[in-house]
Structure formats: C-alpha cells, structure tokens
Amino acid sequence: MDNELTLTRRGFVKAGGALFVGAAVFPSLAVGAAGVEGHPSTMDATKLASWLELHDDGRIVVRTGKTETGTSASAFYAQAVAEELDVDPAVITMVMGSTDDTPDGGLSAGFLGGAANLKKVAAMTRVALLGLASTKLGVPVDTLTVTKGVVSGGGKSVRYTELVKGQQLDLAIPVTGDFPKINPKDGIGLSGLLGLRVTSNPTLKPLKDYAVIGQSFARPGIREIVTAKAQYSGDVSLPGMLHARMVRPATLGSTLVAAGALDHAKFPTAEVVTKGNLVAVVSPNEWEAVQAAQAVAAATTWTPWSGLPGSDKVTAALRAATWTPAEKRGDAAKIDAALAGAAQVISATYEQPYVRHAPMGAFVALADAKADGSVTLYSQTSQAQGARANIAHTLGIPFEKVTIKWAQGPGQYGRTTYGGDGAMADAAILSTLLKKPVRVQWTMPEDLAWSSASPAWYADVKVGLDATGHMVGLKSEWYQPHENDARMLGALLAGLPTLPTGPVSGFGALHSVWVYEQSPAFEAAYVTDNLAGNAVSGGLRGNIMRTPQQRQQNYAVEGIITEAAAAAKADPVEFRIRHTTNDVFINLMKATAAKHGWTPRPSPNPKASRTGTTPVTGRGVGVVMRSGGWWVAMADVEVTPGTGVVKVTAMTVGVDVGKVMNPRHLTSMMQGGAVMGVGEALFEEVTFDTGKVTSTDWTKYRIPRMGDIPEIKTIFTSRDDRGINGGGEAANASAPVAIMAAFFDATGVMPRRIPLAPQYVKSILNA
Amino acid sequence: MPSYALTINGAPRTVTAAADTPLIYVLRNDLKLTGTRLGCGLSQCGSCAVLADGKEIRSCSTPVSRLVGKKIHTVEGLPGLWAGKKGIPETADTLHPIQTAWIEEQVPQCGYCQSGMMMAAADLLGRNPNPTLAQVKDAFTNTPPSPHLCRCGTYNGIAAAVLKAAKLMRA
Description:
The complex is a heterodimer.
Chain A: E1 7-9, E2 18-21, E3 31-32, E4 35-36, E5 52-55, E6 60-64, H1 73-85, E7 92-96, H2 111-137, E8 145-147, E9 150-153, E10 156-159, H3 160-164, E11 169-171, E12 175-176, E13 181-182, E14 190-191, E15 197-198, H4 222-226, E16 242-247, E17 256-258, E18 271-275, E19 278-283, H5 286-299, E20 301-302, H6 314-319, E21 324-329, H7 332-340, E22 344-352, E23 364-369, E24 375-379, H8 384-395, E25 402-406, H9 424-434, E26 438-441, H10 444-450, E27 457-465, E28 471-481, H11 489-494, E29 521-528, H12 550-567, H13 572-578, H14 583-596, E30 616-626, E31 629-640, E32 645-656, H15 663-682, E33 712-716, H16 731-747, H17 758-766
Parallel strand pairs in A: 6-7, 16-26, 24-25, 28-29, 32-33
Antiparallel strand pairs in A: 1-11, 2-5, 3-4, 5-6, 8-9, 9-10, 12-15, 13-14, 16-19, 17-20, 18-19, 21-29, 22-27, 23-24, 23-26, 27-28, 30-31, 31-32
Helix pairs in contact in A: 1-2, 8-9, 12-16, 15-16
Chain B: E1 3-8, E2 11-16, H1 23-30, E3 49-52, E4 55-58, E5 71-73, H2 78-86, H3 97-104, H4 114-127, H5 133-142, H6 155-170
C-alpha cells in the first residue's frame, strides 16, 4: 500500500451513515472550503463523496465521469468495484457522466482507464474498512477476510455497513488531470479531454483471484430500460419549457436571406427565433413546433451554394485535395526496395464513402439559461466536461457557469466523445435568447443530414510476394479528411465562437496495428480539412466512429492481404498464420476457424462465378487488433451475380481480450459490432449532391435489419496472463473485411470499395 | 383544441390536443409516459411502437383522434396487459413475460429501440404464440409499415428473447 495514503477519522456526522471517500485535489485548481475555487458547480473532491459512498443500508454509490453508451461499461465498473471491495455488485448504483455529480471521466473511449481509477479507489477503501474492522474486532488486519461485505477473522465478523454507521472517513486519493480548455494548438481545439487519473498504486487483487469479474453479471439499468423506468436525456422536461424544431439551411453553404413568416392564426403560440443563420421555431406545444417549423421552412429563403463534389465523385475529389502527412510507421525506403525485388507485386486502391453513426434517436438537448448567466444542459453527451468547455466558449461565459447533466441516450458510437456535435449549442443559444428552458429535438432527416460523419477515405496499398508466396513487404498510404471535428452545428450557424479545430488529429492519425511481424510494413496516414470545410456550416464535419481510423485503415491492409493470399495460392487463414509467431493470434485464428467450420483452401472458390442468376457462395476472414484485443471474423456469403444482391449467411466472431469481464455482455458487443460491420459492408453510404446530404431517412441510409443478420457465433476464452483489454468495439472492423473476402471467394472479384450495394456489385462483376 | 377520451394501459385518459397530433406527443408530453421513444417520426424504424387493440401501431404517425375507442397499450402497460390476461393482480413487481425474457437475455445495449421491439414482440406473440426463429426474423423485418431497426445490432438477442417469451407465455 502506498504510504501517501492517510486515513483520518472524523467522528460522527449529523447526517450520518456514510463512509465518504473523496479525491484529494484537482491539481490545477486551488481548493477552497466551499468548493473548488472558481468552480462552484464542480464537486469539491476533498469534501464530497466524489468517487464512492458506502451507505449503512448496504447500498454503495459509485461515481464516474464516464458514461454508459450501450457497451455495458456500467456493469463492468460495478464489477470492478465489487471485486476490489469484496461486495455483491448488485448493491452498487452507478452515478455517471454529469459535470457536477461525478469526477471528470474524460472520453467515452478509455473505459479501462476509468475502471483503473475505480479499482484503485475501491482497493483503498477496502484497506480503510479492514483497519476499522481490525480495531472493532480486536483482530490483526492481516488475518481478516471479506466475503460479500462481511469482514471475518478470529472467529468474529462484522459487516461493512456496521463499520460505516455514523462515520465519516476521508481518504486522500491523489489524482492528476486538467479540465478541458480551448486550445488552438490541439487538432480538436480542446485539450484536457482525458479526465482525471488516480495516481496512487494500491495493491489490487490479482486476476487469478477474481470472483466477480468474469461473471455474467446483469447490467444495472437493463431492468429499468425494459420496464420504462429508465430516464433518457430526451425525457427530461422543465416547467415553462419550450419545444424547438430547427429550420436548417437549404445547403451546407447557404446563408439566410429571410426567415419565413409565421401564420399566427394557424400557430398561435409558436415563435420564430433567428441568430445569424440559425433558425428555430419554438412553442410550448411540441406538435405545434413541428408543424410551424415545417411551414416556416417552406417559406424561408437561403442563398444558393454548390460546393460539394457529389458523393459519386467523392474519391476523385479526395484525390484532388491537399494532404498533410499526419503520422507514419516503418521504413518506407526499405519497403520500396523489398517491393522492387519482389517476384510479384499487387497494387490497389481501397476506398469507402462517408458513413455515419446513425443512432435510433436524433440529437436532443434541453438547456436552461438563467438570469445570472449560468446554463444547465441535459444531454446524452459522452464527454460532459468537453461539452461544458465547448458551450462556455460559444456563449462567452466562464467554464464554471455551465453545468451538464447526463442521462442515457440512443447509442452515439463516438460522435459525442469529444464533447461536441449535437443539439446542445442550439438549445443553449435559444434558451439564452428566450430566457426560458428550451428543448431542441432534431428530426431524423435533420440528424442524417447535419450531424458529423465518419469521412470517406482512400488508401493506396501495395504488397510484394517472393517466389515462395511469402510477403516481403506491405505499404499502405491512407488519406482521410480529419475526424476530430467537435464543433457544434448551432454555434457554427449562429456565427458564435466555435472550437479552433483543425485538420491535424489530436490523437494520432495512424491507428492500424500491424500484426504480421514476419513481414515488414510501412503505413502512413495523411489528413486534410472537412470536405467543403469553408462552408458556413463547416461542410461535411468529420468525427470518429466506433473503432475509429483503425477500422478504415484495417480494411485496406486486410483487403490486400486477402489478395496476397490468393496470389500465393494459400488458404487465407493459413497465409495469415504463417506471417506471425504470435501464439495468441494463431490460437484464436485456429479456434475461430474450428468454430466456423472453415475448410482450408485458397480463394477464390473453385465454383466462383461472376455471372448468372444462380447464387454463388464464398467464405472469408478478417482480423483486427484493437486496444490489446485480438478480433477475428469469419463470414459466409451468398452472391447472386445477376442481381448484385449479397447476403451474409453465417458469421463467427472470435476474440481474445485476455481476462473476460462479463461473458454475456462481451458476447453482445461481439454480435452487435458484427451487425454494424454487415451494415458497412453491404449497405451504408452517405450520399450527397452538390449542395446537401441526400441520404436522409432509413430507406436512403440503409442500416442492417433483423432479416439481414444470420446467427452470429462467438468464441472467446478468458485468460489471466494478458490483463484486461478492450472488448467494446472492433467486431465492426473485422466483419466487413471478412465479408469482402467472402465476396471475393464467391466471385473471384475482390471488391476494393464498400458497401457492396447491388449496383456497385454488378458494375465490378461486369467489369 | 378538442378533447379525446382514450383508454391507455387499461385506464381512461382524457387529453386535449389538435386532432392531427401524433399519439407519441400526447403519451410523452401530456401523459408523461416516456417509455415510448421518438425514432424517425416517419414510420420507418419502430422505436415508437405501441399496441392498439393488441396490434402494433406507430405512435409517431397515428393521429390521436383516430384512437378513440381503441385499447392502447404502451411499454408501461405491459405488466397490466399480462396480469389482465392471466387474471392475476398487478403489483409493482409484475412483469410481462416479454419483459422477463428481455431482462434474462440482457437484450438492450443503448436500449433506445427496445420499447418498440417489445411491443412488436407482443403483437407477434398475440398472432402466433409459438413462432419459429424464421418467423420471428420475418415479423421484425417484413411486417408493415417498416422493419424494426436496432443500431446497436441486438437482433440475435431480440430473437432469442422473443422465443423465450413465447415459451414463458405458453407455460
């Protein structure tokens, strides 16, 4: 145990009944008696139970600034705390994601860092409790054991609840980290997005002793969702609240000529509000707001603009852009020499159009601006502190004047992870203007047109083979507009200050992990601004999406490796195995192949055909390594060449994430990620004309339906020798590669672009 | 604005609303039944599904004036629907077997679409108490007016939960 820990006993507290464990310092801030100085709406971590409360009724409240985004992190956090405290995880209530109720948690990514903080706090609390128990029982600490919150030793026992009754204890828990700040030097325009980190190093339970982690614990909150008791961010209402619907510009670059007049005879309680190019219709009655906004939109005039290339020309437009080298890895000269000496070289360009997060519910936010200049926002953002800095900057008010209250929302898949995008700026601006609480609900067509998206990309890739079919080198150069635009549309359109975002990635641009160490590789990433970035709306704003960058980079690399295996006349699983010595990877590939019923042979299938109305079949494999986790996907497809229709008929996902925290929820992540992968592989494409996005409903932005999805088999083994690694994403990165490879196996034609929509399929089969 | 006498989750509720107001705004804003979720607003996703006389309707695009005389059930009314069917008293702990199955299978990820998914399950199991997996997939994909969509990709879990609920309801 760290010797910097102190335990001070403060005697009885009038409120009584809780053991408070507080983080000691916000390092960059002076700490005052009444709160963190200058930050009255922020928890005073020295005085409040900022991390953990044990109540004498047995309940435990755990606080984290991280959020539940649908990946079951709340279950894993509860399990991690329960493990270190030796309690039943069911007694834990998670408080998540709000600026003033939780310690700064940082990004939605980095679940493991959040768990590490909580594990440390829980371990320190356990030591404190054992100290109390030792005194109470008169038994040395080192002879005590704990089971489900009962401390036993020397033939005696006492419950945690009895130990904390009427007590308050403060533990000094050292933390580092800053609140987010506007920073023009950071590509996102915000620094300090990583949240707090607990820096002490208490002794943690070894993995082999885990009893709670590794169990399929039911996630707290699922019962509430199923019984309609869960509150979503869109469910919050305030007295006197106005409902708003936005009237968006005619194109991404249009400016307002004149807002349409409102027919007050027809819409007696509605009102039009404008600020720059931001136009809204508000009403105390939501349906009136909907209808009045439609009427106003039809009568509102905008300047013409046509600065987009059209989605059918997106790759050509990207080719013509000016690119900045962002990151590289490997020795380019060495690879060029290897390729020059190779017996066989395959060169290809892989590409994908814009795709988007496309949650089931459009953005919604409620803002309550007060006369004192403070604003409270209710939101599903997964980065409340970043959103707070963002909103404060837009409104020109101090950081501490913004409070963000988090509630769960439809899955965002990364688009709110920097605290940007969404309806918060719209709501905050309108509420400030109207001096009333305003709830802004985007429509689904609006969300599918105006939210940020995962940008189109292309990659020039080359692979060389020697005469024996061994890869002698791979070179991948990947080009994508930046995907770190955390500006909010409302602020952009209103002409108010927005983040000084730039094309340089704040978190590195090259995320691909090269897993075939028996062959050298050079990988480089290049970055440019948003497409039509000088439009008043910011153009097509790029944002990260589940398994960001790595997902896209991996398609190109794994795609050409599939081509290389075929050129080497090798089975694609065996070809991959022969280029690595990593036992974890090799064992996982073999286990997944066995589960899938993989028959080794080279691709394409001897029965492959690119013509006819009889379906042809194929199978493929794809691999990705992400956040320490290995992922393998295998897919069977059926292709009807005459119609261009592709159907996935079987899929298996294998994973090695080391210690598995919760088998049932890992299975859910593996299957759900694979479903998203089917969407990218077969259907998903953001389309646009020269002015605006046109894929604005669920028939035009097609996502997977139940009938598109086969049974998805999963295989994983929990192990204690690799720690705990990321399990929430990456199935969506391996599945599309497997589907592309299966298409190649079935037809003999390697698709170097996704989605495999019928028209594109027919075009490549007829080429 | 006119008033409409509705029957929601077995109870009479009178609401004042414009005749063309979609049911969802009445449910969520006037009756504070927020378990029904606004999805696309276009009858294309199923998030807002409720039951009218046991059949699924999309509350985002069904005017309140057309629902007078119908028995409307929302996700909040699933326990009461089951208790009524079995002739058992409804308590705070009563769950519809569909809800039990959804919890046991731990179906939701973000959970946003799941109210609508459970209502679709209630509709299907009302028509077909013992569906095959293929029939479940067909129902959730091809029943008008649109497929029921889940962006998190919980389809395998939903299908398993529907089959489990069917078994629980037949028991």
